[in-house]
Design goal:
Blueprint (H helix, E strand, L loop, with lengths): L2 E5 L5 H8 L5 E4 L2 H9 L4 E3 L14 E6 L13 H17 L5 H7 L10 H10 L6 E6 L4 H13 L3 E8 L10 E8 L11 E2 L13 E2 L3 H5 L27 H11 L30 E6 L8 E3 L17 E6 L2 E8 L2 H7 L12 H10 L3 H12 L13
Parallel strand pairs: 1-2, 1-4, 2-3, 4-5, 8-9
Antiparallel strand pairs: 5-7, 6-7, 10-11, 10-12, 12-13
């Protein structure tokens, strides 16, 4: 029996993509709520510490290896102590590639204990490679981990693998979010290369060299806002903690109306509407009286990224900023700007999970899982060539 092993499997970004492609994996995951989400989604999971799980039972059984080590130590949303620990992580990878386990000593010197988790895939790869496995590898992390992926690539090439590393933008693969990620793809049996992008910021016509690319998928498209044949996500009432509503009276109703009727206004494709400074509360001016205009603001800082509904979202990250990602809107008929907290369901769709994905845990736990997950649409593009599988955008319908 051969299997696909998913290290640090999270709530199921890779696993859901594989499920759509007609394949199942086994995920190793420690987080309680991520495991509960996976169980509710019907995904195979072993709740365990990836750093402690033995490799011996896997020998002779692994066809493909997937790894998305926790990104909190490296992410811009955190303290980024992983960058300070980077030399120690590189040393751990180099040692594990030769069969030397120096993790305990190196971990004691790390400023963030999670940093060294990025070296864990090499422990599995060293053990499996000696037995001619796996056939392929796919790994993903935040952009700052790319130098580490290049170290992995150098080692794998020395072992006879074909390897590609680089940065990919999830929006280029049908994800309604401009999420940049460091990717490693490797194979024993085929040339490793990135999948051809299917989308672009501006649509491209077909040519002699192949089909053109469609425009990036906007938040409004993904959420089905304005599409009368699709249900509309529900906004939670109140602030969520028993206090007063944190937005002007009537703004929830205004957003719900905009979602139902499609009164958000698409910006012209060329040229784009002028934008105000990033510090402005709402970047898109009102053009029609009585019409609400909505955008997504990534946080409440002065340098927050603000995207209008006819654009993809910026990179979603939560954690300690779980309550800061908000829809902001205004109307010529209303003197105040409305502000509505994004829901976990909406955030999941913008990460390319289906609207009915069964997120488990408190709101904070759900947002944390979503922000750390691999976008399934991107995952499918990365995995399909290794599996000889095909899929269409309809296979990943979001606002279902």
């Amino acid at each position: 029996m051969t299997l696909i092993l998913d290290l640090f499997a999270g709530p199921g970004g890779w696993s859901y993509a594989l499920k759509v492609l007609g394949v199942r994996d086994i995920g190793l995951e420690w987080d309680e709520w991520a495991c509960k989400t996976r169980a509710a989604a019907g995904l195979n999971t072993i709740r365990t510490d990836v750093a402690q799980y033995p490799t011996e039972p896997l020998i002779g059984k692994v066809h493909g290896l997937i790894a998305s080590p926790p990104c909190q130590a490296w992410s811009k949303a955190g303290k980024r102590l992983g960058l300070k620990d980077q030399p120690l992580v590189h040393q751990a990878v180099a040692d594990l590639a030769t069969g030397r386990d120096t993790r305990a000593q190196l971990l004691a010197a790390c400023q963030d204990a999670r940093s060294l988790l990025a070296a864990e895939p090499m422990r599995y790869l060293h053990a499996l490679n000696q037995h001619g496995q796996p056939d392929w590898i796919a790994m993903e992390e935040v952009p700052d981990v790319l130098p580490l992926w290049r170290q992995y690539a150098h080692i794998l090439r020395a072992w006879g693998w074909s390897v590609w590393t680089g940065l990919l933008n999830a929006a280029d693969y049908g994800v309604p979010q401009t999420r940049s990620r460091a990717i490693l793809l490797a194979s024993r049996i085929r040339t490793a290369e990135p999948p051809a992008p299917t989308h672009a910021q501006h649509p491209e016509p077909d040519s002699l060299f192949g089909p053109g690319r469609t425009r990036w998928i906007s938040m409004a498209q993904a959420l089905g806002w304005g599409a009368t044949n699709r249900p509309v996500p529900t906004i939670c009432a109140g602030s969520g903690n028993g206090g007063a509503e944190p937005w002007p009276s009537g703004s929830r109703r205004a957003l719900a109306t905009a979602r139902d009727s499609g009164t958000w206004q698409r910006q012209p494709e060329e040229p784009r509407a002028p934008r105000r400074a990033a510090s402005a509360r709402l970047p898109v001016p009102v053009e029609e009286p009585g019409t609400w205009r909505w955008s997504l603001r990534s946080n409440n800082q002065s340098n927050a990224t603000v995207r209008s509904l006819d654009e993809p979202a910026s990179t979603l990250f939560f954690g300690h900023r779980v309550n800061e990602c908000r829809w902001v809107g205004e109307s010529a008929a209303a003197p105040a700007t409305a502000s509505v907290r994004i829901t976990a369901q909406e955030a999941g769709v913008l990460q390319s999970f289906p609207a009915d994905y069964p997120w488990q845990g408190t709101k904070g736990r759900q947002f944390e899982q979503i922000g750390n997950a691999v976008p399934p649409r991107l995952a499918a593009h990365l995995l399909a060539p290794h599996l000889g599988a095909t899929f269409t955008q309809d296979d990943f319908d979001l606002a279902a």
